[in-house]
Structure formats: C-alpha cells, structure tokens
Specification:
This protein is of the alpha/beta class and 280 residues long. The protein is 42% helix and 17% strand. The chain has one domain: 3-Layer(aba) Sandwich (Rossmann fold). The protein has a seven-stranded mixed sheet with strand order 3-2-1-4-5-9-8. A two-stranded antiparallel ribbon has the order 6-7.
C-alpha cells in the first residue's frame, strides 16, 4: 500500500525532484554536503549502485567523474526522465544499468557486486515497516564489496516537528501529528507521501550488527537547517559563504546538529569479514 503511494507521489513530481537539489543555495546544501562525504570516502574508481536514485541527479554527477553507475528506483517515470538526462549529459557509456525496483529487494544483484553503494535523498524513509527497513539495509550492505563504503541519507523526525510549528501549526492538533511525533510514521495524507522520519539514534541502530563499521553521521543541512532565507541571502556574499561553508562542514557531524538537520547521512564501511546478524 505505502509503496504504491510513494510511487504515485514521485510520478507526479519528477521534474521537481530533479531540480530540488539545485533550485536554490539552501537546497543545494544537501547536495554539496553529500558530495563532500562521497568525495571523502568513495574509491578513486569503480562500480557504484545508486539505490533509490530517483531521476538520477547523483548518477549523472558521479558518471561525469568517471564512475560506472547503476541506477535503481521504484518509479518508472523517474527512470525515464533519468535516461534523458543521462543522454543529454553524454555519460550513457558509464551508466551500466537503469533498473526499476525497490531497495528492499536487490536480488538481481549478486553479493559484493559494487565498489560503493549510495542511497541518498531519503528512499529508506519511504519504507514505513521496520522489518522492511532492516531488510533494505541488509540488501544495500550485501551488494557492496568488502571494505566498500555505503552511504544512506534519511529525513529527520526532529526537523519535521519544527516544520509543523513554523509552517503548519494548525496540524499540531490533528491525530497524525502525535503519531509522527511518537513513532516517526507519517501515512502520506497531507501534502507529502508516506514517510518514516528518523531519530539519529534510531538511524544509527538500524546499521548496527549488520556487518559494517559506522564511520560518520552528518546533518546535511546542519546549522543551516530550515534557515532558507538566510542561506540564500548569504550566497550573494562570496567570502561570508565560504566561511559559513567551512563552519558547516566543521559542525555538521556534531551529534546535536545531526538530529536537528532536515536530512541525516550515515557513512559506513563493510567489514572485511562477514558479520551480519540474521535478526533485526
């Protein structure tokens, strides 16, 4: 039920999702911070799975940098749009596959296929059942080679409470508000699709005992989270922006900052020897 709701939502927002990460300096902060950590931990070359990669923003960017990409997404409209962007960017020779599918089932790929796996923008947040979220994480890790980095970002539960307070205070008295506050689950009834919003400790916990070492967690918008006007205004001042970006990258991994950010990123490395729990 929820998967169809998510697919229908993104079918209607393909171009919006493609433009989302570049539409303003504030929204580009998520992309730039993600790229910072990808540049830090990705191998110099190799095959990368962009799992839940939507219309292909990261697939195109990483293909331009010489990586061999596979794009997987739940929504056919996203994939069709991605094919056009890949052709327009001239990187089709570096995109090995474009695949319709869910991150909960990567069985078309054998164990240890990829030199890195990315799952950015929140695909894991669109899985409301905890059992399926755990399955998705195991699948993302399974298809990564040993010692390969795995990058996953999700949407924050604490940040969405701020959104309710500042933009939609009338919703605070509605039943779904307490459900989202207490469980993180939002069924997708008002303006956005079905989503599970994570607490940082919950996000970290879902990767424990699954055969990876957690290297870093980061708040992708960091101290700038929800400060759209201020960030956009700052972009007009080159020196101020440079100093603020330096400050952002120095502070975005602080535990207090991670949880308050709109999006949280976790960076893991698959262990050399398998040590994957069958439970949880």
């Amino acid at each position: 039920m929820y998967a169809e709701r998510v697919k229908n939502y993104y079918t209607g927002t393909v171009r919006k999702e493609w433009n989302r990460l570049i539409r303003s300096p504030y929204f580009k902060l998520e992309f730039d911070t993600t790229m910072h950590f990808l540049e830090k931990y990705l191998p110099k070359k190799g095959r990368i799975l962009d799992a839940g990669g939507g219309p292909g923003r990261y697939t195109v960017e990483l293909a331009k940098r010489g990586y061999r990409m596979t794009l997987l997404d739940l929504t056919p409209a996203n994939l069709e749009f991605a094919r056009r962007q890949i052709r327009l960017s001239g990187v089709q020779n570096r995109v090995e596959e474009i695949v319709e599918g869910s991150i909960t089932d990567l069985s078309r790929f054998e164990d240890e296929t990829f030199d890195a796996v990315i799952c950015t923008g929140g695909p894991l947040s669109h899985i409301l059942e905890s059992r399926k979220r755990n399955r998705a994480v195991r699948e993302l890790i399974r298809v990564a080679k040993r010692r390969a980095p795995v990058f996953v970002s999700v949407m924050s539960r604490l940040s969405v409470q701020i959104v309710e307070l500042t933009l939609f205070p009338f919703e605070i008295e509605l039943p779904f508000f307490k459900t989202a506050r207490d469980t993180g689950d939002y069924p997708g009834t008002y303006g956005f699709t079905a989503c599970h919003f994570f607490l940082p400790e919950e996000f970290q916990r879902v990767f424990q005992n699954k055969g990876v070492k957690i290297l870093e967690m980061a708040g992708l918008e960091g101290l700038s989270s929800r400060q759209t006007k201020a960030v956009n205004a700052l972009a007009r001042h080159k020196k101020r922006r440079r100093v603020w970006m330096e400050t952002h990258l120095l502070t975005c991994t602080h535990p207090a900052v991670v949880g308050m950010s709109e999006h949280m990123l976790i960076v893991c490395r698959k262990l050399s020897a398998p040590r994957i729990s069958l439970s949880g």
